[in-house]
Amino acid sequence: MALSRLCWARAALWGAAVTPGPYVTRKLQLARPRAGLAWGAPRLFDLPCRSSNLHLSPKADVKSLISYVVTKTKVINGKYHRFLGRHFPRFYVLYTIFMKGLQMFWADAKKARRIKTYMWKHNVKFHQLSYREMEHLRQFRRDVTKCLFLGIISIPPFANYLVFLLMYLFPRQLLIQHFWTPKQQIDFLDIYHALRKQSHPEILGYLERVIPLVSDAGLRWHMTELCTKIQHGTHPAIHDILALRECFSNHPLGMNQLHALQMKALSRAMLLTPYLPSFLLRHRLKTHTTVIHQLDKALAKLGIGHLTPQEVKSKLSCPSCYTTWSCFPSTTPAQGAE
């Protein structure tokens, strides 16, 4: 209406004979005769003004639209959740775990990005980070590797349907821990512990076979005593292990002197893939043990007593973080934590 009045006033000023519209109530004023014009045009300041509250700014319109869409989406999402919980309870449990897993994985990604940004800005290396930051980056890298593997095998046409079936049938191998149910986390921990125990006798057998190759008589005696204690279920003391450091630094138990079967047994004990060529197994073991050493130093600096119960629980339920506990056949995860 305001636009029509403005156009009518403009036309009257330029000399066109305009008839007032039905909504114009302002009385026309008599003007000077000009080119046959009998009625003068109303002045612009005489036109009635509408309240500015009726015309919202574009930003206000966008905000109101977004709030409306968000509100409606929450309502629809709530109805959808109630529908699934009422009619498909088993699927609803999986759906809830999947959505929570996505949220936790997204939160991990944002935290990892903040850590990487801090490292880049302050020129900080990985081993210079705190224990929690190092552990978070390490676990996030492993999670991303699993996700990338799933993405690659989903590339062929219609392969995504097969991927969903494989994730449902093999959640331990294909899914990260965020998408495990509480029962699966307990069951998978027992499975990982059993896999570690299976490789321990083989590792001890290799240690016994290399004892005669140790040149120092005192180191041979310490190695024999260590193997005997472990076979009888006794935890060796820290000084007993440190006394054999020289044997594992050089021949015959140095990383560069290990045979393929020995590296495969160590890879199974650390829950690494043993089905790789020898040079890749050696490189991966070196990298893995280096990271474990850096984590141990950071944990010693932090102090084990400063770990929260949630962190201890995550260490027990996460196979990639499960490094020093359950190192011997007689050790259970709970005993190692104690």
Automatic annotation (TrEMBL):
<dbReference type="GO" id="GO:0005743">
    <property type="term" value="C:mitochondrial inner membrane"/>
</dbReference>
<dbReference type="Pfam" id="PF07766">
    <property type="entry name" value="LETM1_RBD"/>
</dbReference>
<protein>
    <submittedName>
        <fullName>LETM1 domain-containing protein 1 isoform X10</fullName>
    </submittedName>
</protein>
<dbReference type="GO" id="GO:0030003">
    <property type="term" value="P:intracellular monoatomic cation homeostasis"/>
</dbReference>
<keyword id="KW-0812">Transmembrane</keyword>
<keyword id="KW-0999">Mitochondrion inner membrane</keyword>
<dbReference type="GO" id="GO:0043022">
    <property type="term" value="F:ribosome binding"/>
</dbReference>
<keyword id="KW-1133">Transmembrane helix</keyword>
<feature type="domain" description="Letm1 RBD">
    <location>
        <begin position="195"/>
        <end position="338"/>
    </location>
</feature>
<keyword id="KW-0472">Membrane</keyword>
<dbReference type="InterPro" id="IPR033122">
    <property type="entry name" value="LETM1-like_RBD"/>
</dbReference>
<feature type="transmembrane region" description="Helical">
    <location>
        <begin position="147"/>
        <end position="170"/>
    </location>
</feature>
<keyword id="KW-0496">Mitochondrion</keyword>
<dbReference type="InterPro" id="IPR044202">
    <property type="entry name" value="LETM1/MDM38-like"/>
</dbReference>
